[in-house]
Amino acid sequence: MSHIVIVPNHEQIRNFLNHHRLPLYFSKPALQHITEYIAASTAKGFRGKVVDIAEYSDCHRTTIGHFLSDGKWDESYLQRIVKEESLRHVVQQSKQTKEPIFVIHDDTVCKKTKPSLQAVSPIEQTDFHYSHLDGTVVFGHQVQATMIQCADTTLIHEIRRYDKAKTKADGTAYTKIDEVCDIADTMPTPPHKGYALVDAWYTCPKVINRYAKAGYHLVGALKTNRILYPKGIRMSIQTFASHITRKDVRLVTVNGSAYWVYRYEGALNGIENAVVLLCWPKEAFQNPKALRAFLCTDVSLETETIVVYYSKRWPIEIFFRQSKGNLGFETYQVRSEKAFTRLWVLLSFTHLYCTIGLGKPYLFGDGLRRVRKQVKIDYVRYVYECGRKGIQFTDVLTQLKLA
Q1: Contact 200, 221 (CB under 8 A)
Q2: CA end-to-end span of the chain, whole Å?
Q3: What is the mean pLDDT of each run of 10 residues along the chain (403 residues)?
Q4: E strands of 184-240, at which residues?
Q5: Per-residue CA distances from 94 to 98, 234, 284, 298, 311 (Å)
Q6: Contact 52, 42 (CB under 8 A)
Q7: Cβ neighbours of 93 (radius 10 Å)
Q8: CB 3.0 to 4.6 Å from 339: which of 31, 195, 244, 334, for a disulfide?
């Protein structure tokens, strides 16, 4: 092959890496691998597998596998960029728009096939976890994600594996609640109010108090067996709801859907005072199976505002779906803990690039399409430059692994 054969130069991706000063901390081969990962992961059909990345690289898949599992590079620096940039961007946006900052927590299970007893090298740190999406226990990695939101911008902040075998210094279990509390300690003081948005698993006094210390209120779902004290009488939400009549509720419309809502303000177990909203879809009032309950520690908020704020938790569900469908979040096959942890960091970094790394903020889906288009343009330019330099077509095919 001619020595003047060039490789596709993903200039826009490289500019993003240079902007965050990666050349000061990573070797040229590592930078090339990161660039190729972003180009590969944003392509249609990406499954998070090493062979998918190899299609966009000059290197053999074993070299890429070594880069992920044993390569000498610091993935924590990329993770720090994601965390710092997401916070910097939303804080700046909050100052400009005077809108609140929302911190969204949730977890998911990246399902894996249970290995046979004869498996020599199964995927590390897999276990059985309950999946809310499947409604049953599944095998795989349980992952906690945190997203930061302000106005129309929602950014990934952190992805971390939940290790249920981890313990604290006193020997007690380190729970998902403890994970969220530790993240709360790292949040900046919000310029114009801040809210943590969580599902029923995380709505508890420990999380509420930790976020209050950081300057944030909490808006979260509640299980209907939680205890209220209406007029000092102890009863569950579900029992209390059975006594509510049509004259006690009012119709609230949020995002085009109408709900009957009852507002309670008072004490809960372990919580001195908060607002609890009991909600039914318009067509299902007093249907016990349709009842949903939400808590807000900011009692000054209007009922409609609380419901709207809780609906802002939905982007994290979209993140899980898009990451599994487009970025190989569930279909990766690397086996070592270091390798799949590095893949998650690269996934977060790619998500950041697609949202705020293209000159202006984009929704992830829109940014992903723009990156895909640019990567195709880079390859067309590469072929054009090869033709202009008189490089043989067979050499080009070999370079692109099409020979």
Answers
A1: yes
A2: 12
A3: 60 95 95 96 93 91 95 96 97 96 96 76 89 88 96 95 90 93 96 96 96 97 95 94 94 92 94 96 94 97 96 96 95 94 97 95 95 93 89 86 77
A4: 194-198, 217-222, 227-228, 235-236
A5: 5, 40, 37, 19, 19
A6: no
A7: 21
A8: 334
